[in-house]
# Entry
Amino acid sequence: MAAAAAGDIREYRISNRYLGFALIAGISGALTWGEGSMAERSLFAAGFMIRLITVVILGFPIYRRGMIGAGDVKMAALFTAWLGVRDGLKALTIGFMLGAVLALLKMLRQGSMVKRFLYLSAYIRHSFQSRMMEIYYDPSRDGREAVIPLGACFFVGAAAAEIWQRQWEEAHGRGGVASTGRVRQRREENQKCSRRSKDGKNNGGV
# Structure
């Protein structure tokens, strides 16, 4: 993921190769290095995939409107799958906040703040009037001047969320059981996902 973030900073592109490695590592790690029986590790891997697919589905409409890149959606999904829902949301929130700061600094440096806000207000007004969500950003039309490495921001957010969690656990005398607690949390999330899936199948069969 660090290599993917570095590529995003250099070229504003996130390689699917690095994301594929992270996906394979996540699934194989859940099955091979996870705690508990094989059934529990399989449940953990299933939860990993459920979280990943859910974030991709939620992020796809935003990507389709040109507000976020496809690689950014994939990185957000992988971090949420890796960290779990709670820590994943922390990571994405920090990432979006960092991205907003970078965008603001970039607009100030380029002297394009008024232009960008006028464009945003016109886009919102047109969307309400036409009741259609058109593409907000098109590289061929708008260039690269407004682009920020959001995937790299997510990476920093994930690192910050992990450090924050460890410091909180150490401050509360739980440093020795940090990894165990995190595994337990994700196991509970996976069990909830599994129960919802079973309930959906049972309701569909009635």
Notes: The first helix runs from residue 2 to 11. The two ends are 44 Å apart (CA to CA).
